[in-house]
TrEMBL record:
The keyword NAD applies. Pfam families: SIR2 (PF02146). Belongs to the sirtuin family. Class III subfamily. InterPro entries: DHS-like_NAD/FAD-binding_dom, NAD-dep_sirtuin_deacylases, Sirtuin, Sirtuin_cat_small_dom_sf, Sirtuin_class_III, Ssirtuin_cat_dom. SUPFAM superfamilies: DHS-like NAD/FAD-binding domain. It comes from Kushneria sinocarnis. The lineage of its organism: Bacteria, Pseudomonadati, Pseudomonadota, Gammaproteobacteria, Oceanospirillales. This is NAD-dependent protein deacylase. Keywords: Cytoplasm, NAD, Transferase. It catalyses: N(6)-acetyl-L-lysyl-[protein] + NAD(+) + H2O = 2''-O-acetyl-ADP-D-ribose + nicotinamide + L-lysyl-[protein]; N(6)-succinyl-L-lysyl-[protein] + NAD(+) + H2O = 2''-O-succinyl-ADP-D-ribose + nicotinamide + L-lysyl-[protein]. Substrate binds at Y53, R56.
Amino acid sequence: MSHLVVLTGAGVSAESGIRTFRDGNGLWENHRVEDVATPEGWHRDPETVLAFYNERRRQVRAAQPNAAHRALAALESDGFRVSIVTQNIDDLHERAGSRSVLHLHGEILKARSSADPRLIYRLDEDQEIRIGDHCDRGSQLRPHVVWFGESVPLFPTACELVAEADLVLVVGTSLAVAPASGLVNEADWHVPRILVDPAAAELTPAGITAMTTSATEGVSQLVDYWRQHRRLELPDFLAD
């Protein structure tokens, strides 16, 4: 069975109303990134960090999957093998119906031990993380996300998935920024690679096909083509 591997980033979630981008001044939702998305920020002021992610969690729970999420899930339901490697920490791919989703940067709807990263807990509906919420070993719970300066433990698994791909689709993330920049090169040289992004014409390096559209428009168009032709290939409307 042909294998589609999809690398998704903030641009996909943004079309569902999730504000995930940092501003040009280095702030994220009016917070310094160093204060809310680094181990150092956590050690300085865990209460502020927890409050920040509790608010992000509320945003995710209020958001709904968009046409791009639904199209990828529909392709999988049609019998195609679809693996999604996402930099997003929301659960919109899963809620749309995708069954094979690897979260490179963690999952905001889970908590984990601040002492043992193997102790991971799914949060109940509307549940938040507060100071005094402890893991089974008695340590404070923290968001199950990868902060700046931390390793990305699932990166080797993501590399293995891309290496198995018959077609790689990149949506909503720049190929100039790691880890997508490295992941896309894990595929065999002959494997078609498509970048869907409003700025794809400027972002796309040699050997990768640009599709200069929004995530919802581009993914829906590609999936419609693959479902109609019953095979994964570079669509004729993108071929030179």
